[in-house]
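User: Fold both of these, please.

Assistant: Here is the first one.
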Amino acid sequence: MKAAPAGLLLCLAVLSGTFAAANGGTLRLANAVAGPYLVSVWTEAAPQPGPVDTSVAVMQPESREAVLDARVNIVAELVGGSGSPITTTAIRGAGGNLLLYHAELHLPAAGRWRIKIIGAGSNGTGTTQFDLVVATPRVPALAFVVAAAAASVAGWLFWRAKTRRRQNLPSSPSVHR
């Protein structure tokens, strides 16, 4: 079993609750007992259907040092759903922090998901879980602004073309005798 001396820093980050793993994410589970380990999990702040960045810290409970030789699997099931569980493996350092295990968990639908973390290492295997609410995707405000601008431009072009046509029409024919 390998332990990082930087475990103290990891412990302080976990205890502070402000550590922004998972690309600026939110702490979902702090120091949860998972068999012989402590596990903390971060995800995106407001996950929506699709890939959800997930970071996991696996620590020794006595020393709070990071466990660097674990195998971390993440299993997600839609609560009340009938689909198959979604499983992915978290890779140490893949998210840029060598003390954390990182994975993109692909959650295809909005709803309440039960996320199970399974950590296995030289001290044994442990499991913990938490629920994660995946929100219905929202159309960003910028999309409304762009749509309104496009509609305005289209309306102006239509009006301009119509007034030009009127200007180019010959006036009523004069009668020449």
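And the second sequence with its predicted structure:
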Amino acid sequence: MLRGWILFHHELDPAIPEVPEILRFQEAASAMGIDLTVYDPHRFDLIVGGDEDWAVTYNDSPMGRPDFIICRTGAETDYYTLALLRHFERRGVRLVNGPATIERVADKLHTLQSLNRAGLPIPRTILGTFPMDVDLVERELGFPVIVKTLKGTRGAGVLKCENRSQFEDLAGLLESAEAKADFILQHYVRASHGRDVRVLVVGGRVVAAMERRSLTGGFKSNVSLGGVGVAYNPPPEMAELAVKAADILDLDITGIDILFDEEGYRICEANSAPGFQGLERASGLDVPSTILEWIVVTQDAPASAPAAAESSVLADMIFGGRTGLRAITDRNTHFREFASAMGVRLFGASMSCLGQALAPALLVDARSRTVNRRRTGTPYRRAIGTPFSGCRAVVPVVHRRDPRPALRAPQALAVPAVGGSCGPTGSTAGWGVRGEGFSFGF
């Protein structure tokens, strides 16, 4: 039986907003045969050194090693909880999410810096300082302006100053009170007034989304503050943005909040322990079961992944950059069989792949104009096809002993997404990057 822990820093009192979600996790785990126990991180004692190099006790009782830990402390994660997570991380326990990720995402400015560095769109932001330079704020952000504490959740610690006068009043109040809270100032995105989208990403895949709308006409749309959530089918660009944000921030599970902008979308915030009660009501998705199923499926993934020499095709396909699929076929599986095995769900894309695989002129990556590199004089040292629209890398490998494509089913040749050399699969070992397969997209 898989054994997991949930770290949560309150008693399981249903009056606490997060507790019903914790109980939902336990309910889903029980139905799946998973032993899932809730622990308060502050009741652990960590012992480093001596005979028990990584000992852990809970209420003075020795603790074993779980298979995984889900941290649900979110923005309220303190140093002790992070230290506990690092302790288990060093013991090889799987963490969902990890301490470095949780610490980064708990700091809204740090989150925005990471996203901005990766080129993802965010609202223009200034770190608040005392005394405040009102002219700078007006010049760089304009009014209205959004004021946020660096750490906060469920819409707390966020307000809007409509004009310069209101902002000056707030600045004067904070300075006179010698307020110590760190905060940021953000450009107000008018197109998203009173609405945004919460996108739930699990394991690098969008599993649900809802549009949150204010019912009072205010600028906050949080369901916890009285807003309403409705099911939402995110456009491909929005879904891709959410997945990229989760990847940049190294979040296994996250709720990405996205604002509507005149020119597209902007990432507002990311959450390491996203609330999901409103999302479940809006979408009908069983969020805890979805998360736990992903954990179960991927729990032993590193140990069970096949060696490069034992697979003929490792495909990491991204259709339009929107939907991810990973598939591994056994040695010597023909490309056409692999393509047709995609099934009804990806029927259209599969038919395109199948058609290209069955066609006499096979495909070659536009960057790699050769097929057989053994001798420069070989008649097969040429392009034998051109990629279809948007294709990044589909390259057949002509068998070394029999270079005639018509006599052997083609195998896939790896073409790195960025730089590097071509690499083989199956019996054509010896070229490039470990023969890990191919990558292409539509």
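Residues 302-346, 360-442 have pLDDT under 50 and may be disordered.
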